[in-house]
Amino acid sequence: MLQLLGKKTLFFDGGMGTQLQAAGLPVGAIPEELNIDDPKLIESVHARYLNAGADFITTNTFGANAHKMARAKYSNTDMIKAAVKIADTARKNAGREKDSYIALDIGPIGELLAPIGTLSFDDAYELFREQIVCVKDDIDVVIFETFGDLYELKAGVLAAKENCDKPVFVSMSFDKSGRTLTGSNPITYINVMEGLKVNAIGVNCSLGPKELEPVIMTLLENSHVPVLIQPNAGLPTLKDGKTVFELTPEAFVDALSNVRDKGIAMIGGCCGTTPDFIRAVKDSFPSDVKERNVPYRTAVSSSTMTVYLDESVRVCGERLNPTGKKKLQAALREEKYDMLISEAIAQEDAGAKVLDVNVGLPGIDEAAVMKKIIPMLQEVVSIPLQIDSSSPAAIEAACRVYNGKPLINSVNGKDAVMDAVFPVAVKYGGVVIGLTLSEEVPKLCEERVAIAKKIINKAESYGLSKKDLVIDCLTLTVSAQQAEASQTLEALREVTSMGLSSTLGVSNISFGLPNRPLINRTFLTLAMQSGLKMPIINPLDRSLMDCIDAFNVIYNIDEGCIEYIKNQENAPVQTTVVVPSTASTPSAAGSAQTSGASTKKDVGFCIAKGLKDEVSDITNKELESTDPMVLINETIIPALNKVGRDYDSGKIFLPQLIQAAETAKVAFAEVQKHFTVSGEKKGPVLICTVEGDIHDIGKNIVKVVCDSYGYEIIDLGKDVAVDSVVDAYKQYAPKVIGLSALMTTTVENMKRTIAALRANDCKVPITVGGAVLTEEIAKEIDADYYTEDAMSMVNLLKELNV
Amino acid sequence: MNKKETYNRILPLACRYMRVDLLRVDEEFNRKAFDVFGSLSDNVRFKGQHEIISTETLFSLDSALTESSEDLKFYLEGCKEVVIFATTLGVDVDAYSKKLQSRDMGLAVIYDALASSLLEYMTDRYEEELDLPKHTFRFAPGYGDIPIGLNYIIIDSLSISKKIGIYKASNNMMLPQKSMITMCGLGKESAPTCAHCIRLNSCALRKENLRCYNS
Question: Which of A102, A136, A265, A699 is close enough to A226 for a disulfide, judged by CB 3.0 to 4.6 Å?
């Protein structure tokens, strides 16, 4: 089959479910049960498709995962085995044993993966694995179809690749917006799935052939693997209370006329299509697949976004790296990941297009931390991540759970490093940064280029193309190796002329010199001019980002200066002109006056009004003349208390309360910088949303408000297993525990959590909150307190003297 | 209908969810809420599905569940058929909510309330456009004594996950979070009342002489 694939047009079958419903399958019945209850019926559907000319028959196993089949009367694997047997019998009886193929059909699990849902990636993998291994020797191909979540599909593809040696086809559904259920666009889908080495990539269901045309065209124009399409028979309409698909086989074929000769490798049908549709496409499609020439690109993806690293300059944010950052080191050691989350957000918001993630610290299980932190980061930022580690095990752990096509940082010219990292990159479809460093630090351009070539050759021996590489030309420190620093720029030009993408850690250049930003931005500009595609910098450093903005304007990349104007419109213009000391300076006096007439907003006003963006500057200004403790005790706390009272009395509402709390938090953070010893935190208080419940907005409100009152909050997150709460209680010794639940059904888990805590001798007060809770329920489930909202939680903490 | 009109329609219900007194909404709050409604609109991918099935079929989907509900029988008494609606704002709304929560919790609260309100509103419009014959008011599992577990059975039976992307999550919850499964009986007219509501004696709205069904 693999010899024919992509050369001769192959035909899939059409809809199974609609055929069974036409044969009398009632609403709500489980189609897979028919594999055992009525094998003849299923066989007859296969037979009709084979007679119509289908090359592939798809087993009646779309929903046959253990999770979905929980209410079926047979075990899922028994139904799968029966289905494959039926398909085999059908092709034997049709005399098509030699020239038709059995496709094991696997549909979505029917539950969304974390972080949107609660199903873990590993559990999803396990469910798919079970469906495949029971018939892996009796099928010709595994097809995952109608998927809406790229992450779930990744779990499926890995399960197939790791447990079975048959080809793997994938097919996702796209809605009218051109995106999948969880927001992936076709380009991202292709980039991720090609990385995972699927044998064919396709689109099916949800829309008819005409509506799918844009997605089909994108697949044909961008995919390097054969393309499979299985549209519905048009859009469903309701007729006499029944769902019907109105397209005729002829209209179906007509609707495909624009894409017919564009290189589709396989075609079949989804909902509403019948053997007549397959016959019609078989008659109308060319027998040879038109060759497509799709150029290779250097691109990394998150689940919703693909970033090309071979066109204009894309910034990689460098701040998620504990090297030399004491606070981040402490946060990592104490597993307080909030700081990493806010660093990630700040960098994305500042314009980073990729984020470097490094969690390497002595004594830390890097692989375990990566596995935890990658999904957390992907929940709050949309841009792709760069997995940065010197441990191949950590890189593999991160690549496995990463939702998208990762960027791996890095290999260098050493064989041992490449031999450890390249297999991981091949397996998970990563793009790899190749650092032009070997046993010795190269000084000259030629040495760097030689190492780059060595990396390219080695990568190719593993099956990675040079488009899967980004070369780091190695920044040297100009104060130490001034003669060689410019060699980096030369190497960049060489590497670019070889058609490679490039990266550089920029700020290393200025180490040891005064006014480092000046050297940094000059070097960055020269490097961009020499072809640098991905500077690894601090995107919060506006002076560097400004250089890129200007560069993009001058090279006509930022057409119409749109980005430039957006970013620079309100930028303060700094024209530092040195004025001779003898000159009179009336203008300076004038400007002093202007700044003297500053607004009367003080810290208290900012808190009351929730002016989060302005409070930092104002706090710092007040700290010039006010003692930090005085500012806290006489301004911030009273302002916060007033806001709390106003909320209690209904003068202000929840959103304003939260805004005020967040503003106070920013003010606190500024004030704390002025203490010689770090500010004392009250608590700690442990909070979480209980097991089975993913509603965490209420819990998050509590966190923000308590935080602003200076309590240390340990937030375990949502859907937290009972045992994890107990473990956290033992680990952190909190003074109060707060549990949240929104659903009546999860109040039961709240009760179990409390019981488990009590069983572990937990004597600290436990308070509960959430929409369905009341004072009575709190008592019933053995909680000590019921806190209705965030303010009442603060009041309770005060009352308990935490 | 333009953005501003939709916003004005959904704001009262959203304020009720936030326990914000509509009469005291000031210019600043309104501006913020309207801005955040813009982000919400960008993330909404509303999808609706409806199926007309016989009342008998509905009751047979899981008879242990349906037979246990007095209210379900009461509401559908005399109806031969039922329309089942499934509507969702799509998963991007959830994803953005999470991002907003990490950036600005105050806005996230407003966003969440607007999203809930928008789902109700769009579901109403979806129903109106069908121009149904004589029918009861629309209700949902979880209302009265109708078991919420019925949601799961309906999702499976009508292939709702495959068709419009509403999924089961643990504990009878649905994902995306802003999703609803509702139904109304065909053949008779009836309006909602508080009589069968689980919160009959503890409803905050009733205490203020308000009703959740005429906003």
Answer: A265
Q: Contact A146/A178 with Cβ under 8 angstroms? A: no
Find the farthest-apart pair of alpha carbons in chain B and give their distance in angstroms, rounded. Answer: 53
CA of A656 vs chain B CAs: smallest distance (Å)? 7
Q: What is the pTM of this model?
A: 0.84
Residue A402, class by beta-carbon neighbours within 10 Å (0-12 exposed, 13-18 middle, 19+ buried)?
buried
CB contact under 8 A, B47 and A175: yes
Identify the residue among B105, B107, B174 best suited for mutation to test binding to A, counting A beta carbons within 10 A and taking the highest. B105
Query: What is the CATH classification number for the domain harbouring B57?
Result: 3.40.109.40
- Residue B85 inside a domain? The answer is yes
Choose among A27, A28, A379: nearest Cβ to B98: A379
At A356 the three-state DSSP class reads strand
Cβ atoms within 10 A of the Cβ of A295, count? 8
Is the ipTM of this structure higher than 0.95? no
Looking at chain A from residue 105 to 124, which residues have their Cβ under 8 Å from any Cβ of chain B? 107-108, 110-112, 115-118
Q: What is the DSSP letter of A114?
A: T
Contacts of A243 (CB under 8 A, 6+ apart): A236, A237, B51
Judged by a CB distance cut-off of 8 A, whether residue B194 touches chain A is no
Is position B215 within any domain?
no
Beta-carbon separation of B81 and A241 below 8 A: yes
Residue B213 domain-assigned (yes or no):
no
Going along chain A from its start, the domains and CATH numbers come out as: 10-284 (3.20.20.330), 299-565 (3.20.20.20), 598-672 (1.10.1240.10), 682-799 (3.40.50.280)
What is the pLDDT, as a whole number, of residue A584? 41
Q: Which residues of B touch A177 (CB under 8 A)?
A: 45
Residue of chain B whose Cα is closest to the Cα of A145 = B162
What whole-number distance in Å separates Cα of residue B65 and Cα of residue A436?
A: 66
pLDDT digits (tens, 9 = 90+) for A107-166: 999 888 988 888 999 999 999 999 999 999 999 999 999 999 999 999 999 999 999 999
* Interface contact B91-A181, CB threshold 8 A: yes
Overall number of domains in chain B: 1
What is the span of the domain harbouring residue B148?
Answer: 3-207
Token output for A65: 């995962």
Pick the residue with more confidence: A469 or A788?
A469
Q: Does B51 touch chain A (CB under 8 A)?
A: yes
Quick one: tokens of A539? Answer: 């995107």
Query: What percent of chain B stands above pLDDT 70?
Result: 96
CB burial string A257-292: b at 16+ within 10 A, e below: eebbebbbbbbbbbbbbbbebbbbbbebbeeebeeb
CB-closest option in B57, B161, B170 to A108:
B161
Mark yes or no for CB contact B106/A17 under 8 Å. no
Structure tokens at A781: 């489930």
How many CB pairs lie under 8 A apart between chains A and B?
145
User: What's the angle, vertex CA B94, arms to CA B92 and CA B96, rounded to 5?
Assistant: 65
